[in-house]
Write a structure and sequence with these properties.
The protein has 437 residues and is α/β, with parallel strands linked by helices. It folds into 2 domains: 319 residues, 3-Layer(aba) Sandwich (Alkaline Phosphatase, subunit A); 83 residues. 30% of the residues lie in helices and 23% in strands. Strand 10 and strand 11 form a beta hairpin. It binds zinc ion. The site of zinc ion has 5 residues, from loops. Zinc ion binds next to loops.
Length: 437
């Protein structure tokens, strides 16, 4: 097996010499649901908070779906290792979470979730001393001829910020870990519109696109505008949180990681929403770090590719836990081993997609695809060609490597018994949030 493949599979030797962290430390992970990397430009308050941050310019979410990426952020494992490859699945108890590992080291741990997929029933509350998963917003959606509605699907940023401020005040220990989740950019687009104004839901966009409605492109452009408004409103709602973190940092060294679980498509690559494909606008996410752990204590820009598992590894390392993960401590010197940036599995045709260091790989039954530099490869079990140039076949080594990876993913996943909640209420709630597979 090539070293690169071994590193991808998390088979590299783990260094397990954890040293206890005893000096006061506050670690904060902020995940913004559905925030595209370029949406950060719409967030002047966040950029002001990040003025001295380290910006990771090539950061990718583990997947384009809420639960699988959070499972990677929470365990430091790739999706084929933690088994959560779609919403509705339960994070296996056998996998220690970042919150559990930090709590074992004496951290007080608090999680504040903003939407239904992160409810405790899916296993994400494990390790948190206090976990908030009650939501305010009702949801009404027309979906495939039915009206879906219910309460408690998600909360908007003012509510999450208020809870976060309470929890920051309440925390007493010298060692603190917080996870704050914000959901505003997720559809419906236009959450902050006046009552009675038309929000746009992803179902409406998909229906217009599928029906080849001539107004579809206008609708998509309007949805994008509303998305940006939601992002700007979120940005303003974060101001009190950033102010509190800045103020408290004078008394407790504070490490803030800011990222997203996935982005969002508005017609790019023929896609809408998220979760169906691993295209750049769905997996490229903002990632910055504010705090004293940066080498030299200075901010700046980093160009090396990194992903959700690396965020987990870095959080743990700051907390004094250098035990095994599949990620790398972003502040330790390394040769930047390749990181698998994402994978999703659909159950239609047993198709896998993998985002790998800026290239996209996919397999579907006996067909393989590989997109490097935006070029698709296709073929069968024996030969892989550039799709737009059938005379150019992939090198035998690369073909073998791709097959080896996918075989391994498949057997890893088959070896995990990931529980899935399939009750009516869960199915309806996920459908109401736009998750249909
Ligand atoms: Zn999400």
């Amino acid at each position: 097996m090539r070293p690169a493949v071994a590193a991808l599979l998390g088979l590299a030797a783990a260094c397990g010499n954890a040293s206890p962290t005893r000096s006061p430390t506050r670690i904060v992970l902020i995940t913004i649901d559905t925030l595209r990397a370029d949406a950060l430009e719409q967030m002047p308050e966040t950029l002001a908070f990040a003025e001295h941050a380290i910006h990771f310019e090539e950061a990718f979410a583990a997947t384009a779906t809420t639960q699988p990426t959070h499972a990677s952020l929470f365990t430091g494992r790739h999706p084929w290792q933690h088994g959560v490859t779609r919403n509705g699945q339960v994070l296996a108890r056998s996998l220690p979470t970042v919150a559990e590992r930090l709590r074992e080291r004496g951290f007080e741990t608090v999680g504040i979730a903003a939407s239904f997929p992160m409810e405790r029933r899916f296993g994400f509350a494990r390790g948190f001393d206090r976990y908030h998963d009650t939501f305010r917003e009702r949801y009404v959606r027309e979906w495939e001829g039915e009206t879906l509605e219910g309460g408690g699907f998600y909360s908007l940023a003012d509510d999450i910020t208020a809870r976060a401020l309470d929890e920051l005040k309440r925390a007493e220990g010298d060692l603190q870990f917080f996870w704050f989740h914000f959901f505003d950019p997720h559809d419906p687009y236009g959450d902050r519109l006046e009552k009675g104004s038309a929000r746009i839901g992803i179902g409406e966009l998909l229906a217009a696109a599928a029906g080849q409605d001539p107004r579809a492109s206008d609708l998509v452009a309007r949805a994008k505008g509303l998305y940006e408004r939601d992002v700007q409103a979120l940005d303003r709602s974060l101001v009190p949180l950033f102010a509190a973190l800045d103020r408290d940092a004078e008394r407790i060294p504070t490490h803030v990681f800011f990222t997203a679980d996935h982005g969002e498509s508005f017609g790019e690559s023929g896609c809408l929403g998220h979760g169906k494909r691993l295209v750049r606008e769905q997996v490229e996410v903002p990632l910055f770090y504010v705090g004293p752990a940066a080498p030299g204590g200075r901010g700046g820009s980093r160009q090396d590719s990194c992903g959700s598992v690396d965020v987990a590894a870095t959080l743990l390392a700051i907390g004094g836990d250098r035990g095994p993960t599949s990620g790398r401590d972003l502040f330790a010197s390394s040769d930047n081993p390749p990181v698998a940036l994402g994978m999703r599995r659909t159950f239609v045709g047993n198709k896998f997609e993998l985002m790998l260091d800026g290239s996209r790989l996919a397999i579907e039954g006996e067909r393989f695809f590989f997109a490097g530099d935006g070029r698709l490869l296709s073929g069968n079990a024996d030969h892989l060609f550039l799709e737009d140039d059938p005379t150019r076949e992939l090198s035998g080594g690369t073909q073998l490597e791709i097959r080896e990876l996918f075989r391994t993913f498949q057997s890893c996943l088959e070896g995990l018994e990931t529980e899935e909640l399939t009750g009516h209420e869960v199915r309806e709630a996920l459908r109401a949030l736009g998750y249909t597979d």
